[in-house]
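Query form — protein RNA polymerase sigma factor (Sigma-70 family)

QUESTION: What is the three-dimensional structure of this chain?
INPUT:
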Amino acid sequence: MKADRKGESEIQDEALIAKVKKGNEHAFRLLIEKYRDYLFKTVYSIIRNEKDAEDITQEVFVRMYLSLPQYQSQGFKAWITRIAVNYAIDVKRKMQRKREEMLEVIEVEANESVELPIIQKEERERIRQRLEAIPPNYREVIYAYYIDEKSYQQIAKEQNIEVKTVETKLYRARNWLRKNWKEEDFR
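ANSWER: The structure tokens for RNA polymerase sigma factor (Sigma-70 family) are given below.
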């Protein structure tokens, strides 16, 4: 008795497919209703996510509809199952690759967030050492002007000297830096 129903089901499927190929939308809706739960369970067994399985099942029906002209009565249920399984596996692989790429990005960002402060600290230390090499009479004015960002007037007032003296010291300090420092010393 069960074999008869299976044969009847296949005959009904073939009749519906013939109607769909002729443009009958109602026949396609009947196929969707008949196989929706079956395909969802098939896809869910691969994806293991209800929302994604629903989306993939809908996409399987679209792919099935577009592929129906190539269908050649080789067992409709097996044919749509193959479409569903192959598509679900493809989507799962893409999701895994995307997840792996995201993990790589997170890992790189984590490494950079650890490395950056260390590099910055090393760079600050190297610059501090270079600044210590400047003669003391130039170092004070360099620190005040470039590091503390003070004006000529503020420096003059704090060091109890004339503004013109500040200008002269900065001029001489810059010349000393040009002669004694090379750009590659800071790389």
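ADDITIONAL NOTE: The mean pLDDT is 85.
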